[in-house]
Amino acid sequence: xxxxxxxxxxxxxxxxxxxxxxxxxxxxxxxxxxxxxxxxxxxxxxxxxxxxxxxxxxxxxxxxxxxxxxxxxxxxxxxxxxxxxxxxxxxxxxxxxxxxxxxxxxxxxxxxxxxxxxxxxxxxxxxxxxxxxxxxxxxxxxxxxxxxxxx
Amino acid sequence: xxxxxxxxxxxxxxxxxxxxxxxxxxxxxxxxxxxxxxxxxxxxxxxxxxxxxxxxxxxxxxxxxxxxxxxxxxxxxxxxxxxxxxxxxxxxxxxxxxxxxxxxxxxxxxxxxxxxxxxxxxxxxxxxxxxxxxxxxxxxxxxxxxxxxxxxxxxxxxxxxxxxxxxxxxxxxxxxxxxxxxxxxxxxxxxxxxxxxxxxx
Lengths: 151, 201
What we know:
The structure holds two protein chains of two kinds. Chain A is of the alpha+beta class. Chain A has two helices and seven strands; from the N terminus they run βαββββαββ.
């Protein structure tokens, strides 16, 4: 993240985001209903892990899953029963693209990254998937010291 | 080209409302462009809105209210020159201060319509309880022309009343609309408000 893209607005204090994009695959085909289950478990796992790390509020956790013929998106604000999953399942696939975005209030940016990665790896493992490495990104949103501010 | 902001804290239902409003306004013949600003560097909301068949300009990598206001300026100029829409709907990040975005847009001599700020009634206690969040959300509410009390289908009448009183104290001048995008409550009211200012131009 470029340093000059960091927010210095004190109203943004304590809110940090982490985004990750990866390709997930396995030998056995994944049906649409299993993709939905994966998305739901991922939402619950990331939010639960963030709370475990001390999060005060889940700003949001959002993700989408893209296959050749399907597109599912999921989000949660942290209540286990309150996961929304919409979109089309499409045909069974052996690989799919996942984009995941966590915005959390009350823990450090490093903790947002660690919690999200920990939950993602656990969910991937639980579904017997393997992950192609894609460089993750930490998005720091607040930096109290000065600097250029183009707003 | 008129511009409308759909602002509000993270998870308040902005994307869902943008989709619902865009559907209605497009059906009424308006040429609508959607500009989405997301906190994460890899956009999710823009992709979801595109899945509904709308063209989206995605501004990622920071908040347009403070970090990348220059990107907003360039994107709006591009939209005006290349697409000339009747209406641009901006969905800023959940951390954005609507007044700052308004200032940026006004400097471009673009007509700005109402600022709609969503307030999540399912989390009203929490959002107005923690000091930092309270400062941010109060600032967002103060900048609103309309405050949409969102997700009213998930809470009791008492909770809605309490939320309504809380936001009225912060911004007594704003119109308050009860919104359940899922059920359709309030969407038509907001669409009409947006349509009126767009047609006036």
